[in-house]
Fold each of these.
Amino acid sequence: MGILQIVIILLLIFVLSIPVGKYIYKIISGERCFVDPVMNRVDNLIYKISGIKKEQEMNWKQYAVALVLTNLVLTVILFAILRLQNLLGLNPNGIGPMEQSLSFNTAISFITNTNFQSYSGESGASYFVQMILTCFMFVAPATGLAAAAAFLRGIIGKSKSLGNFFVDLTRFITRLLLPVSIVLALVLVFQGVPQTLSHNQTVATIEGKMQDIPLGPVASLEAVKNLASNGGGFYGANSAHPFENPTPLTNIITIISLGLIATATVVAFGHMLKNKKQAWVLFGVAAFLLVLSVGVTYYSESKGNPVLERVGLNQSMGNMEGKELRFSVAESSLFTGATTAYQVGAVNSMHDSLTPAGGMMAMWNMMLQTAFGGKGTGFIYLLMFAILTVFLCGLMVGRTPEFLGKKIEGREIKMVAIAILLHPLLILIPTAISLITPGAAASTSNPGFHGLSQILYNFTSASANNGSAFAGMMTNTVYYNVLIGIIMLVARYLPIIAMLAVAGSMASKKPVPESIGTFRTDNTIFAVTLLGVIIIVGALTFFPALALGPIAEQLTLR
Amino acid sequence: MKTFLRAIIISLVFIILCGLIYPLGMTGISQLFFNKQANGSIAKYNGKPVGSELLGQAFTDMRFFHGRVSANNYNTYTKADKIPDKNGKTAYDGVSSGSANLAPSNPDLAERVENDMDAFLKLHPGVKKDEIPTDLLTSSGSGLDPDISPEAAKIQIPAISQATGISLVQLEKIVVHNTKGRTLGIFGEPRVNVLETNMEIAKLLNITF
Amino acid sequence: MSKHEKKSFINKEIMLKAIKDSFVKLNPKYMIKNPVMFVVEIGFLITLFLTFLPNTFKEQDTNIQLYNAIVSAILFITVLFANFAEAVAEGRGKAQAESLKKTRKDTKAKLLDKNGNIKIINASDVKKGDIVLAEMGDIIPNDGEVVEGLAFVDESAITGESAPVLKQAGSDFNSVTGGTKVKSDWLKIKITAVPGESFLDRMINLVEGASRQKTPNEIALTMVLVSLTMIFLIVIVALYPMAQYSHVKIPVSTLIALLVCLIPTTIGGLLSAIGIAGMDRVTRFNVIAMSGKAVEACGDVDTMILDKTGTITFGNRLAADFIPVGKNSMEIVGRFALISSLKDDTPEGKSVIELAKKLNIEIKPEEYENNKYIEFSSQSRMSGINLPNGVQIRKGASDSIRKFVLEQGGTVPNDLEGVTAKISRAGGTPLVVCADKEIFGVIYLKDTIKPGLVERFARLRQIGIKTIMCTGDNPLTAETIAREAGVDEFVAECKPEDKIDVIKREQAAGRLVAMTGDGTNDAPALAQADVGLAMNSGTQAAKEAANMVDLDSDPTKIIEAVEIGKQLLITRGSLTTFSIANDVAKYFAIIPAIFTLAIPQMKLLNIMGLASPKSAILSALIFNAIIIPLLIPIAMRGVKYKPMSAKAILARNMAIYGLGGVIVPFVGIKLIDLGLNPLLKVLNLV
């Protein structure tokens, strides 16, 4: 039954990504689309108010500047709102201002599409803040998608222009994220997700005690949270909370929305390139990595916890600690795989309580960032590894390497190297420092190897802009708020800028005509090689750290 | 500079569109069409709200089915829990969610399970260790899990029957009545909503409060 | 090519010099140019330090000092091996340069002043622009152009070709090279090179590797290697505190060993050797590449532009058939054609004799000894012989012979028109043979394609290179030759400036173009092409414009140059893949080894079943070191290259170097471990 659940949901994601991919292609290319009559008016209004000339094309530097500036403005606004949330109204539960370093962390977390939360929604955010955060859940992923669109135009296109950032941002929000979110939100409310501005309710129970029932405008946040790779929950327990994810049906919808857009981006790439085979090769590699991680996680979770088995607790149900009963172990494992592969960060079970192998696969997904990855950015990473692979393969067939008909030279390789180098740097070095800083190491809540895993996981999540956490660890300290904030910031913008630079330099290159001597990148050999490069370069980097964390924990678990 | 100005304006435009119009609009529609769900699916007993159909509750009374382990006691508390102790701390300090995040290797987990197991075996004589369904002794992710597995409900029936005097068959019926199968026969797990089941028992026992 | 390959790539002399150089190259100032090996050297220094002061990090391990010493020794050897690889490659170039240098003895030059007076000065004092006189027996002091005179010059010093070459003012053969020797007559030469920068000097520098600059692909690859090195540096630096946190004690020298195993030392150690060897392979092939970039660009060539005459065909029209007209037989045509050609020294004439011989048409030449030979002239457009009996035998252009016959009252056979037209259509030249007023038939002169070229063009097509033939011939002739040779495109009635247009057209389509040329009017096209191969026999201007010069003046060599360029890239790519793939096995050797003491369950990862942690680490490290010299032959000779599609090449190399790169170290490390472990037991290092 478990395997059937996983297979059906994955198939739904893959199948749905085909029409959605075509639709995303139309958003990127500006091709005529059935929503135009309505949406053109909305868009034009937005352009008019903001003084945007939609015909104005940008080169890579202009595009990067527009992207960074818009994000900067939003970050500053969010920081101010968090600090002043007690004064801004819509605060029926009387929540005080957010602490300085936590506000810094939260503002960056939401603009970078990470949604790492060191606060708990119930006690840390007013309804007004939750609504503003909802807005960030649109803008941040739309920024990532815009970057991907620009990147694709650059490496495919013939002109030097990468498009117009403001137009891309607007189109992704008004044509994709907002309409789908509206539909999703209504389905969620129908299934029981609250959507109200009234304060929390206290009831008297049939046992004569009291219970607080948290409320709020949850569904509107929840819909876009999952759809757009955000993952920041309304409540502390995130998608494990019955008010965020009340039924098996909402769970399926949530998992599908986690993966849909990122998967569809690959399909859109095929349409842009007019070479679907090329897109399917990348699709296949990413899908393989996703299925692999889900498979290992499910296997390990369904085996249960040997320690509890020794204590005498029957483990035939699998590892239920930290999981909700209404979601099976299989669907929880799938959720874990999807949320880390797609860099969403929502959780429907507590990752800290995953079996070590399951927790390792979650980390592995975030370390590779290529099992489809985040909205837009994940695909950029996949293409980056493709460029590196092309470079090696190109040499091996005796030609200066080309990808998509453009020569890969020193400049591109330099940018790719920076982006690939950054990830281990931002994960391993902070982990190492935190482990030997007594105050920082004390934040871990579990002893032994798992303590290392907690720190490793949280920095990995920050650097992958994922946002899920081994949440037992106390990350709401000035040290972690600032450090994780900086990591999220660098991990988000440096690769985007580097890749826009690659796109800019590829755009200005003359396409090389294809001949029989050209090494083709749309076949199985390339797919296998790409997979090898991703695993060797991407994963072996983290092997020693994983060996001391989850691998050691799993091996000593008995 | 022009770009900067555009960046500011478009930021404000989206804050208004996605941060205010969208959630407020959704709230309006939801309140209109899905009023019950939008306000927390409140469960009513004798016309009075006693909880949410979607949230679990901490039950300690032996006449009721007990739910899963919760790190936050299901946000359920008594007046005494809100009185600060010597250190100014309260047993209940506001609504929250989540689990204790114990790692599988954490000795605290094994210890907690062992203690709970001993307590359970004492309250349910005749049950063997490895017959206890895992969900009963493991903590849920949210701390608010409303459900237990049908096996976890069935294993509690004899003890409840003894405490309430309701026949085993009757209790069995109540459990079956409150068991939800898999969605579409495939997705999720079969489950028993503890609050709804207990409300049925309470009605049967004519409990008022 | 084959004869060069069979030569052993190393001899005793080069070996000894290379061993010495490997130590000289240990100088950090030099090492830093190779960042990967520089890291290994730093690692060596640290472990060396720890050998003498083993208590620096308060490590409590049995025999830690000895262990540190062994690790540092292996690291030292690793660096030496890498240096050795480079030194061997350089040594082979130097050996060649030595022989070139011998020709650059300090000679005297005869400088001519404005009044024509001769002044004897040292050759090294001759400046650019000077006019010098070189007479029989003189060595030409520097590169230059012949401004007056005509002489045979011995260029064997440079080309190895012993037959002297004719140099003549005002012709396409007016360029002379410094260091060559005048064999006859005299030449007045205007010097065109600055002292020390002559062709010979540059050649010496190039083969020595002194002026070697990193090529674009090499730079990009270095970037990849450096970033991999940095990644693993991060991994190792982070590992130390992580291990400490988990109460795993890892000796510093073990961390350094792990680092060295993981960073791409194999390719890092061989990279510059591969580059030098690639240049060297070109040089051994008697082609001088002006830069490594040129060789690399060869691998990328998409289009090759070839002259028809001299490159694809011999350029001479040779008799291919005797075709009778009227009632005559083939033998009769052949017989008269033969007679008419007896005293004909032109290649056409000689070929008629050859053909007749082949067809067993025999006459007694002595019978015709005293006959009068009528030479070909542009007025008559025929040649032949007048027999003593007054019979005039002629062969020549169809209309001339026709006129000749008609003038004497003869008739033209009806089928002549058809035969000549057919030959013309096929791209050949008809020579009509007659005696007095009777026309016997036609000699079919055909442009002949050089042997082996058809196969080579087929090979080029296999690797996706398009060939374009340029010829001054009419389209009909051009098409015939193009079809026979198997080139993809042709440009007929092509003037030198048309070649540039063809190149530009191809380049605009994004293709990389290679071409060969020799004349001065080829120079602009050679400069425009991405790869220009000039003939050494050509003009100075052509040689200046090209980025490669073929000393044998064989235009078809461009094909081999392309293959060498490809081979160079393939070797680099394959060894990089091999190097990176090795990491898998090294991880499985070392990671369990360092953790097993503290976490016994880690044994599970020791899938090779290595005897002890120390043995595992040292085995991996030794494997890492010895793989470098083991791969030197591949680096020097290049990965085997067979023309086939990119997909097939990739599949093959991926199987050998990718998959092989994963498997070989598993086997290698296990074998080393088997041999090493008893030794370590004796040393009490377990």
Amino acid sequence: MGLSAATVISLAPTHQHYLLEARQMQALSFMVHIPLVCFGVAFPAMVVYTEWLYLRTGREVYRRLAQRWTKVMVALFAVGVITGTILSFEMGLLWPNFTATFGSVFGLGFAIEGFSFFTEAIFLGIYIYGWNRLSPRAHLLSAIPVVLAGFTGSMMVIAVNSWMNHPSGFRLHNGRAVDVHPLTALFGNSYLWPELLHMYVAGYIVAGFLVAAAYGVGRLRRGTWGRYERAAFAIPLTIAAIASPVQVVLGDWIAREVATTQPVKLAAMEGLYRTTRGADEHLLGWYTDRQVKYGIAIPRLLSLLAFHDPNATVKGLETVPARDRPPVNITRLSFQAMVGIGTLMALLGAYFLWFRWRRGRLPESRWFLAAVVACGPLSYIALVAGWITTEVGRQPWVVYNVMRTAQAVTNVPELPIGYGTLIVVYAGVGLSTLWVLRRLARAPMQSPPEAGAGTTRAAEAT
Amino acid sequence: MHLYVVPLLFVMAGLVFYTVLGGADFGAGIWQLISGRGEAGDRVRQHAHESMAPVWEANHVWLIFVLTVTWTAYPTAFGSIASTLSIPLFIAAVGIILRGATYALRSGASTAAEARRIDTGFAISSLITPFALGTCIGALASRRVPVGNAAGALFSSWLNPTSIVIGVIAVLSSTYLAAVYLAADAARHEDAELARGFRVRALIAGALAGAAAAVGLLVIHSDAPALFSGLTSGGGLAALIVSFAAGLAALALVLTESFEPARYVAALTVAAVVAGWGLAQQPILLRNLTIRQAAAPYDTLVLVVVAVVAGGVILFPSLALLFRLFLGGRLGETAGGTAAQTNASPTDRRTPRPTLARAALAAFVAGLILVVFIDVEWGQVLGALLLVACVILGFVAVDPPSLAEREDA
Ligand code: HDD
Ligand code: HEM
Ligand code: HEM
């Protein structure tokens, strides 16, 4: 058995003038990938559910809906795959020293994730192209692995990210990782579960609200809708409405996990400079001169939320030297945006559930529809804001308290050329995706013979 | 065999799968580019698109597999390669983006003209990606990548005779494989005319790829002597002979229109070249790094091997299922759909399901209390599970279809 000779040098020290550009390339790529991931996570479940409704009730609307959504899923999945591939390349193209030093620690997560992607791609292929060819039951079943792989895939990436936030499972010796225990590093991490569930639920919220918003826009424009549109609105909305209040609880969990394991990030999220006993919580405002100005202060709330004790001591930014502090305003405002939007969405979800309980139907007032439409983009903003909180709040570290982002970065010069290219390419991808979605929304679905060729509303009058 | 080479064998196997499966998808794209205008061209393009659609994503994952296993098991090598070869890799990445995006666009195309324009974009990306990846292989094979963060030459590491010739071989062999596969697919759909067309294309592309390989050997002889001596002795030589023999056999099979076996023999031709490169180069990974030096610590290697073997147990049966359905002609166009035999009667429930709704609410409250107020791990995990239960129960209780059935108030 060959124990490898652990004497090879880690890659040389870095001298990169364009660190900021590298970070922005990474951030840009994530912002493109993450919304697609939400669809990869949540859409298969919505589509199978709808197909199952069709099999159970025999109603054509559900078949048409499931097939239309399948087409959308195909397009979004293709874009999800390529944007994810770019991220994989960027692990080497932007952060070779990070991967070279710690690949042996966290890489296993991505290697396992690869098999999730295989499963997802294979069964999605079978599901998409098997509509006519498989028996209804076999077809329905072929989607189950897709749903499961969406979960395991997310779990593996999040395991890596939670390790970056709360690293363990190795020792550093002369700048190299030794005593490596990948399983401990990836799965023995108290940070994994809250982060995974928070992200996974976010996937359902974002996909749910965005799909519901699309149909909400149609309803606001045309003023009426039929069973097809109501189903297409109600299914994703129900998911998002229930997931939103749950997300607030999960957010509280992850926040307390941050408070104990990454105190500096918490201080940046709250704009707290001095270590304070009985710290106040500030809503809105701007951090400057070591304090939050123009905000609304709520006495002792921060201590209460973070440690369940109004007199608890919360560590401030002053506990670490200035060079170890993250940018405060970006982190703080992103965090506030996420929490603010999350709270509004939870309230809207609760209203919907209450209305359904009392009246037994969909709320169809204009303000409600408009609010759902707004929640589409807002949920995406909350998602990105959450990731900015996590990633920028961890700066200047790429692996918390172990490796600086500046040590991880590539030495390749001329990064801005790559950055510019990437912006152009992503803009093209974004426009193309929107074009396809519009096309798919407008294209008439092949109507089955028994329903006759007609508009969606005519076919729906069963 | 040493443990530290096992992951490398996986990487090479992944590379072989990527070349013979993913490579052919690129090749199909190239045929779309040069299949001419008019209706005949449109038919070729449509055939190429339909043959590829159900499988390209699965084929593409082999690339991800290669990347992730490499950076886990040989992290230093991965960081060195990716930084020195950042330009060709970036070009390949952009090609991959274009390819996926045009694939997504295709589903929105409503006229042949639109499809043609989109296919052109697709084809251009199909050309640059294998070429760029081929130049990276050339850089590794001619030992132009040293250890270090962008320590090698930024341009000459991949713009050199060996890299360019391997890039060209990559493009031509992808084109060749695609033609053979597409001929076989056309024959299976009993489209004799298309099959005949792809037979001619396969013969031409095969001859070109073979010629390029011969030129390649000459180039390597002068530009990368170490690689050349590896390829002309021992295992490297054996692999080349296998490739040569398989190449001739595949041509004969294509000539006699036995497309089905030709598919596999043609793939063997290309696979043997990849294997030959690996055999010629070992035990050197990079210019100044052996496989052994590059390998990750013991625990990681063991876990990678376990993970890949376990993953393979799931992967190969699934892949077999996909290809069986696909090659058996059971996967086709998306639209349409047989009416299912359903027996259930439509439900029309206007009242909520009170018990379920109460259970969901209870799960929420209990979950909240456990997650927020019980500061021990089991409490939080239990609470999280209750929250998940709340979502599922709540969804069933709301029963969205009943909301859809209800007419406007
Ligand atoms: C739809 C999206 C969404 C919504 C509504 C919320 N979150 Fe969130 N949040 C995310 C989406 C998100 C995320 C998926 O973007 C993050 C980034 C990392 C992660 O695991 O989830 C995240 C991270 C994140 C973090 C940072 C963890 C870290 O730094 O590592 C905290 C403290 C919270 N969230 C807290 C909350 C609270 C208290 C919310 C309640 C209102 C909330 N989130 C709603
Ligand atoms: C595993 C899942 C990961 C996710 C979901 C994720 C997400 C994100 C997001 C959304 C941003 C944007 C922050 C901004 O706007 O600045 C970001 C930034 C960044 N990410 Fe991550 N990240 C992950 C893993 C990684 C990895 C593997 C690296 C590799 C080094 C990395 C390094 C960075 C860096 C350096 C930034 C820039 C931070 C800044 O601009 O201040 N992240 N990440
Ligand atoms: C927010 C964290 C992330 C989550 C939850 C996530 C999850 C997913 C999911 C569910 C897919 C399936 C495809 C789809 O649905 O569109 C996917 C695709 C992909 N992701 Fe991500 N991802 C994240 C970040 C990353 C990062 C950091 C990387 C690499 C460094 C990455 C690499 C990939 C790759 C390579 C694919 C394509 C897989 C394929 O070919 O099928 N992702 N991701």
